[in-house]
Amino acid sequence: MTLCNFIGGKFVPSRGQTSIPVTNPADGSTVSQCPMSTKEDVADAIEHGKKAFQSWKSLTIKQRTTIMLKFHALVNKHSHELAELIVLENGKNMTEALADVAKGNETVEWSCSLPQLAPGRTLEVSRGIQCCEHRDALGVVACIVPFNFPVMVPMWTFPIALVMGNCVILKPSEKVPGGMMRVAELLKEAGLPDGVFQMVHGGAEVVTALSESDDIAAVSFVGSSHVAKIVADKCNARNKRVLALGGAKNHLIAVPDCDIGMAARDIVASYAGCAGQRCMAASVLVLVGGEDDPNTSKLLQEVVRLSSELRPGQAGGQVGPVIDNAARERILSYIDEAVTKDDATLLLDGRSGWAPNDTGSWVGPTIMLHKSAQDRAMREEIFGPVLSVIRVNSWDEAIAIENGNPYGNAACIYTERGAVAEWFTARFRAAMLGVNIGIPVPREPFSFGGLYGTLSKFGASDITGDGAMEFFSSRRKVTSKWSAAYGTSTVTSGSAPAAKKMKVDGSSSQSGAIDNANFDGKM
Question: What local confidence, expressed as pLDDT, does residue 331 receive?
Fold first, then answer.
């Protein structure tokens, strides 16, 4: 079955002449065919979005929120159905898939609080002079999302964009389109007008068309650093608002005083959960204390023990497959090179004897002890259930390794001492930091995003929370005065007596205070 685009409130066939198979990574079977849409498909969606925008933004924010509240309830009602689609196309276990849906719907819930959060400020900035700000919708915006969280990451963007009054064109990952197909139906059921939310399947041609169109007011992107930079460059060349989040190489640092049991469980969940396919997953563990430190040695032993007890599968607590065979081969190549070229020691080998079948894309949890921080597996994003470990003697060595990587998404320190935590969090070169939390994802109202100036982030602002509210709206400031308030009116009435006269120097007739910033009427 070839999937359709969702344009103008209807599922319509793509104009593209080709499609790619959407496969079940657990067994390699074909689930559906995803069309490779064209720039003409994008143009159709843009025109529908432009027509819907004026009426959509003219609704009050409370009216728009009413629809999002209904959508929130529908997502809760159909959460298991959505999770089953995630398991089918992405390979997550069921517990992870349900969490994918729940975390996405948490952002929907936060978007329903925007009537209380989005109103602008008002202030009398000088006597008789009032300044107020309004948040205006941008227009038709695009959200380009990855495969690793088929429901959560799209919901990190479009609910906030919609409540703020924008029309949205979503390009889901061509590897996991099914979840968003169902979400489009739920949005329509919730009462969203036609053309306000649309979806165009495809690949590079669709991304390019969205990035280069003058009728797309803003683009949010989550994916690889390579493509994030391409999208950001295309948008910046057109002075278009863009937020493009790229990859990561997240470091965990453990010092001897850490709680071994708590840290070990957290480390395993961080690197092996979701088969390591998340931009907040741990990929490097730095043990401080050298080879002779007994506590960090015990920690490493416990991490290996817990990891060795994991089993393949898609039930809660099991490790699912990676997204496809191309990803599997890439992950295996990093492990092979670390062992054969860099002389890393395999503490746990997930390359063979792990897969429950010969047709799926399975890689088991793998732990490698490195001798050099310059090994490729220590520096590059692997995006799989692989943990690279290295020992150092000092805090300075540990922070130098973390600071030396070109990414800036997340980092974590494991310690039971506040002073140690403060020392490391003040020096990490990353935007989302954890203390004894290996997946330090901020929750609303806090927003999600990597560090500026690294390969994890290109463009402006963050997604989710108040960062997305800022990104998907434009601030307008109005400064005004009225003759009655300013004291220059000569007209009085029974209901509106003339205001007191204002002196030329900006002070009132009843006060000696002078407002030197009040330059109104003076040269």
Answer: 98
| pLDDT, mean of residues 279-284 | 95
Task: Tell me if residue 224 falls in helix, strand or coil.
Answer: coil
| Cβ contacts of 497 within 8 Å, gap of 6 or more | none
Pairing assessment for the beta strands 457-459 and 241-245 based on DSSP bridges: antiparallel
Q: What is the mean pLDDT of residues 491-516?
A: 53
In whole angstroms, what is the distance from residue 407 CA to residue 205 CA? 27
Total length of the chain: 523
Block residue for tokens 């001492």: 417
Strand ranges inside 102-194, DSSP E? 122-126, 129-137, 140-144, 167-171
Asked if 70 contacts 103 with a C-beta cutoff of 8 angstroms, the reply is: no
Task: Choose among 245, 173, 226: nearest CA to 432.
Answer: 245
Run of H or E including 40:
helix 39-58
Mean pLDDT, all residues of the chain: 93
pLDDT of residue 504: 45
* 8 A C-beta contact, residue 327 and residue 281: no
The SS3 call for residue 1 is coil
Q: 252 with 258: CB under 8 angstroms?
A: no
Summarised one tens digit per residue, pLDDT across range 183-192 is 999 999 999 9
Phi, psi of 496 (to 5 degrees): -135, 85
User: DSSP characters for 58-119?
Assistant: HS-HHHHHHHHHHHHHHHHHTHHHHHHHHHHHH---HHHHHHHHHHHHHHHHHHTTHHHHS-
Residues 416, 402: Cα–Cα separation, whole Å: 20
pLDDT, tens digit, for every residue of 305-338? 999 999 999 999 999 999 999 999 999 999 999 9
| Selected catalytic residue, list 112, 258, 274, 279 | 279
| Residue 499 banded pLDDT, cuts 50, 70, 90 | very low
The encoded tokens of residue 39 equal 């720039």
In this structure, of 67-81, 353-367, 392-406, 498-512, the range with the lowest mean pLDDT score is 498-512
Q: Output the pLDDT for position 489.
A: 55
Instruction: Write down the H helix ranges in 238-308.
Output: 260-272, 294-308
Does residue 494 have a pLDDT over 60? no
Whole-angstrom distance, CA of residue 441 vs CA of residue 114? 21
User: 171 with 154: CB under 8 angstroms?
Assistant: no
Active site residue 4: no
CB atoms within 10 A of CB 54: 10
Beta-strand relationship, 140-144 and 218-222: parallel
What pTM value is reported for the model? 0.92
Q: What is the DSSP string of 294-334?
A: HHHHHHHHHHHHHHHT--BSSSTTSB---S-HHHHHHHHHH
Among 14, 62, 18, CA closest to 42? 14
